[in-house]
Structure formats: C-alpha cells, structure tokens
Amino acid sequence: MKGEVISTTGQLLGTVLAVQANFYRVQLEREDREQESKKAEENVNSDASVPVLLCTRRTRLKKIGQQVMVGDRVVVEEPDWAGGRGAIADVLPRQTQLDRPPIANTNQILLVFAVADPPLEPYQLSRFLVKAESTDLDVLLCLNKSDLVSPQVQQQISDRLLNWGYSPIFISVQNQINIDQAANYLNHKITVIAGPSGVGKSSLINALIPTANLRVGEVSGKLARGRHTTRHVELFELPSGGLLADTPGFNQPDLDCPPEELVYYFPEARERLAVASCRFSDCLHRDEPDCAVRGDWERYQHYLEFLDEAIARQIQLNQQADPESTLKLKTKGKGQSQYEPKLESKKYRRVSRRTQLQALQDLYQDEE
Ligand SMILES: Nc1nc2c(ncn2[C@@H]2O[C@H](COP(=O)(O)OP(=O)(O)OP(=O)(O)O)[C@@H](O)[C@H]2O)c(=O)[nH]1
Ligand SMILES: [Zn+2]
Predict the structure, then answer these.
(1) Which sites bind Zn(2+) (predicted)?
(2) From atom 32 of ligand 1, which residue's Cα is the shortest distance away?
(3) Is the bond preceding residue 196 a cis peptide, omega within 30 degrees?
C-alpha cells in the first residue's frame, strides 16, 4: 500500500505551512491527499482539491510544552474533511531547526544575488555565503539578472566563484533563463531563500510559484513590513513538490560563530584542512607558524576580516555575560549595591556554542 511508505499505523501526516494565531495550516502528505479526495468524493459539499487543513494543537501537546513550528511534520487527528479542520496530535522529530526565520526541517538555503543592478559585491556575497554555511545546511547559489551581462563576464564570475568552492547557476527571471534548472534543485525539499534587497528574490519566487503573487520591485517600505517580519513565516508549495520559504529582506548578516569555527565556512579553506593540518590544534590561521590554511587564496583576506569580527563579538558576549571578571555586582534593597566575589569565575568559560542551525538568525532581522 502506498500510504505505508509514510505511515505504518495509518496515521495522517502533514507539514505545517504557516502558523496563524492558534491555528496551524497543515498540508497533508500526498498519499493522505488521495485518501482525502476519496473521502471528499463521498461528501458532496467538500472541495476535492483542498489539500490543507486548518488545525489546532491538542491540549496534551500544550501541556508537555511541545511547540509546533512551520516546517514541522505532524500527525493529524480527527480530520473534518468538509470543514477543512483537524487537530495536531503529535510532532515528528525535527531533522533541522532554524530560529530566524523559525522553520523546522529546512534542507537548504538558496542564496540569490544579481550579477548587476545591484552590482555583485564579492565581500557582501562572501559574507552571505559564510553565514549560510554556518547553518550546516546545503547552500545553493543563483546569480540573477544574467541578461544584463555578457557571456564572457558570466564566465569570469563563474571561474572566480569556482575558486571559492561554488558553482553558481546563472539565471534571468526576466528572460526565463535557467529557471527550470534552478527549480530542479528545489524538488521535494524545504528551501529557505535569502539574499540582499533588489536582486530578484520575489521575482524568482513568483516565477517558480505563480500563485505566490509577491510584490516585485517594492523598496522595503511600510507596506512591505508586515510581510517582512521574522515572526511571519510561510512555506509556499512548489508545483513539482517541495516547499519554499518566503523570508524577509535583511541587512548585512552578522557573523557570530565562534572564531575557531569560522574557517570551516570557507569551502576552499576546508579543502586545505582536508589534506594538511596546522601545527597548533587551536590555530586561528593568522600568523601562527606552520599554518595549513594561510596562503594566497582569494578570500583569505575576507577570512581575516570576518575573524576579527567574530573575535570582537565573542569578547563582547563574554563581557555581557560577565561584566566583571572576578567580581559580581549585587544589588541589595533600594539602590544599594556591592561587589561580591563570585563563587565560580566564568572568565575562561567558552561562550556556550549556539546551535549551528540557529546561526542564520541574524540574516533575518526585523526591519523594525
Ligand atoms: N534585468 C533584470 N531585472 C530583474 C530580473 N529579475 C528581477 N528584476 C528586477 O529587479 C527588481 C527587484 O526585484 P525583486 O524581485 O523585487 O527583488 P527582491 O530581491 O525580492 O527585493 P527585496 O524585496 O527588496 O528583497 C525589480 O525591478 C525586477 O523587475 C532579471 O532577471 N533581469
Ligand atoms: Zn592554521
């Protein structure tokens, strides 16, 4: 039986597309939809094409504090086919979890940049790439507006990015170039789309999903704000299967990974470390002797700059977590305070490592 593939117990499984107040829009998995349309056939009033149920969360889940996120695969009970309602009874274990935007089970990040208008800035691109790599998800790179540059220029860009460890797909939403090729990479996956403003993200989503109807060419103004908040996340269904997250426009992503991890977010540096090791295991690849990473690769300068930033950030975090290295300010009563020795100095404690999958969060900042 087909249904057995996804559920051995005959449960209804679905994916949460959006969260609206206390309701969850759940798209049933294909096999279930066959069942559903069978049921719908039996019911004269129902619409056989409705694949989505508006669901509540069972009290039991609330009691155990089980959150339901967009992207979650859930067990749906008591489907009311005619009314399009149901109840979420369980959440399947998450494969991945992004915090900003909050999406479970994301497979990959699709970075969109333009080859021109706005011009392709290597440093900015590098930053987005490093941030995306730090999520540990697969990273896809699409370069839009290829209609604006010659094939020779495209080749130059392509050669350069190959040295960075990437094979970009050149697309033109305007001239419908390579859109199908890009779409192929999104099949049956949950993809988060990201990239700077004006590169054509909305245009691309509209080209991939004509029913999405996103506004194009709107400078992030007041109208756009409602949609562009991290709190509102929505997954759009791709016609050939797969889900795409429409995400807010965002600023320069912060690089907040621990400094010692940064190097792994450069594929070309990873390659060096795969074949050789640095003399010191805690090498930050600056001026340490016998470093396997330091060298004449193009983005080494980017690495050094991002490293400074990551170190500065870590120092700042340490200070926030521990403003006095050995003394703690204790407030007593009304405005009285005194320093007390700490029982345990946190001075040398490493900043707790954030889940890598949360690292994208600074990509998506509320525009407020
Ligand atoms: N020449 C050319 N222009 C394009 C192409 N794709 C999109 N554009 C134009 O680029 C501008 C920005 O497109 P959007 O889709 O709004 O860009 P966005 O990335 O969603 O921008 P934000 O919403 O600010 O993040 C619009 O004027 C589009 O018409 C393309 O392939 N070629
Ligand atoms: Zn090194």
Answers:
(1) 278, 283, 285, 291
(2) 145
(3) no
- Gap from CA of 118 to ligand 1 centroid (Å): 9
Nearest to 81 by CA among 134, 3, 28, 143: 28
Looking from the CA of residue 249, the nearest atom of ligand 1 is 25
At 142 the pLDDT is 98
Q: Residue 16: what residue type?
A: V
Q: Among the atoms of ligand 1, which is closest to the Cα of residue 220?
A: 24
**Which of 113, 175, 216 gets mutated to test ligand 1 (max ligand atoms within 8 A of its CB)?**
216
DSSP characters over 175-241: TTBSHHHHHHTTTTSEEEEE--TTSSHHHHHHHH-GGG----S--S-HHHHTTS-TT--EEEEPTTS
What confidence tens digit (pLDDT) does each residue in 17-49 have?
Answer: 999 888 999 999 865 455 555 655 555 344 444
Is this complex scored with an ipTM above 0.95?
Answer: yes
C-alpha span between 363 and 110 (Å, rounded): 13
Of 316, 324, 359, which is closest to residue 340 (Cα–Cα)? 324
Q: Which residues line ligand 1 (CB under 6 A)?
A: 144-145, 147-148, 172-174, 197-203, 216-217, 220, 249
Q: Give all domains of the chain, ordered by start, each with its CATH number.
A: 2-93 (2.40.50.140), 98-246 (3.40.50.300), 259-331+339-352 (1.10.40.50)
Instruction: Give the separation between CA 244 and CA 129, rounded to whole angstroms.
Output: 19
The residue among 323 and 95 whose pLDDT is bigger is 95
**Cross-strand partners of 277:** none
**What does the pLDDT average to over 114-122?**
96
Which residue has a Cα nearest atom 22 of ligand 1?
197
